[in-house]
Amino acid sequence: MINLVFAVACSVAIGMIFKHTGPTDIDRTALLTVNYATAVGVATLLIGLGGRSVEGKLGLSPALLALGIGTGALLIAGFFLLAHATDVAGMSLATGVMRVSVVIPFMASWLVWEEVPSAAQGVGMVLAAAAFFLIARKERRPEPVPVAAGGGGGGGTEGAGVAPDVDWHAFGVLALTFFMGGGVDLSMKTFEEGFGATNSRVLFLLLAFGVAFLIWAVMVGVKGLRKGEWPGGRTVGWGLLLGIVNYGSLEFLLRAVAVLPGPFVFPANNIAIMVLAAALGVYFWQEHLSRANRIGIGLAIVALVLLKL
Known about the structure:
The chain has 309 residues and is mostly helical. The protein has helices at 2-21, 28-49, 62-89, 91-100, 103-111, 119-135, 168-194, 201-227, 233-259, 262-283, 291-306, and strands spanning 139-140, 145-147, 156-158, 165-166.
């Protein structure tokens, strides 16, 4: 159980780092580059020291190599969008849509691999889809406009009673985050179905992390050569911390699955992350959750339970 607790803590820490570094001058591209370099380094160190067992090898066929590169690209897009969604919509909603995106590989399992869902899983997929739209419905409250006294109107504010509208920019960012997060899960499902029997999952993840690092490193290098802007000490420091908790979220989850039933671990992990991220966002950073957002998070919790029945 302690591994599951650490997995949840590491995942929530990712959102907290994005939330904390968002308003600063830290270069996100460099931050994510250091993050993936650290994750690859930690994974390699654990494998070398025997702290992580590697079952099987990784036969780099053209198809598997293409899947690894695609997964690395999805990791890049998903992590960048998660960071941006945290900026524009808050940690609560960004984490919520990322967690509920688990419905995408469930849909693919049904439509592509003909794994017919149970009645409970079918209800769970419907609830997860509804939860996404409710969570992503970030409200933009109109600023009250002061009204000058006089003219018989009295003082006060104009627009105070106007209903908030939907922040469509935030909705779009959250939607992209949802699909990219689901895309990463779908790529792992593709690996399990097509290559998992004869290839190591750990080495495949290491390949994907390595691809993500190389792509980000090229971007940082090009920017540095063109503009003379290279990662500073603060960026490297936060990137190291982000990489450690990023890898830790996966490592501890794998360790939890090794000793606890998967149908318990995965929904418990996602639910705990959503609830804790929402609580921290509301009470620590004063993020606003509308009634629709709160209902969406509640539906997502129910959906995550049903999807594992």
